[in-house]
Write the structure tokens for this entry.
Amino acid sequence: MREARDKKGCFIAFEGIDGSGKSTQIRLLKNRLEREGIKFYCTREPTDSPIGSLIHQIMTGRIQSDNKAVAALFVADRLDHLLNPADGICAKIMDGTSVISDRYYFSSYAYHSVDMPMEWVIAANSQSAELLRPTVTVFLDVDPDDALGRISKARFQRELFETRERLVSVRQKYFEAFEKLKDVENILILDGGKEEHILEAEIWENLKPYFTRAETR
Ligand code: TYD
């Protein structure tokens, strides 16, 4: 099987702490791609697969588990996300569709390494990294206090990870992972505190070449 790293479509992963505004920016990017007539598929992790829904139930406290088991479930969810014969994203990319994912393996590196060694998390995700490295990982950097403000406005019930202390450590872990992997990953760090349309224009300016290159291949 050809690997998705010999890819035709581009693969953009959005990352950020909870409340970083990823969903808004992904929505704006989708609108832009539709206007430009670019073929794309938008997805997210945890996914809506049976493995992903198990994760959602653990994260909302409906099922109890251990953080190490959850980290391993994310590894499985991600491999299924890449390789599932029905809608796996590797096949889509090889067919020339560009893919945008709301979170990918840097979320695991940041969120799980708060409780366990980052090296373990990176090693556990190595198959995903070999199969599909993002063309660009876009990190929307926001102040944890601003992020918490957005979360409490938007949601009635907070998930397990959404406390200030947790957001501060997760943000630090993201930066630690970016530093560790800067030679092999293409990481774009943007100020998520900017006005939404200014940030949208900045994201598009940076990503446009990858989407248009994919379209002409
Ligand atoms: P999020 O994008 O915040 O979804 P929603 O806006 O619906 O709450 O992601 C859900 C949570 O999953 C988030 O707190 C981060 C966590 N997460 C991990 O802990 N590990 C992972 O590998 C991924 C992809 C997400």
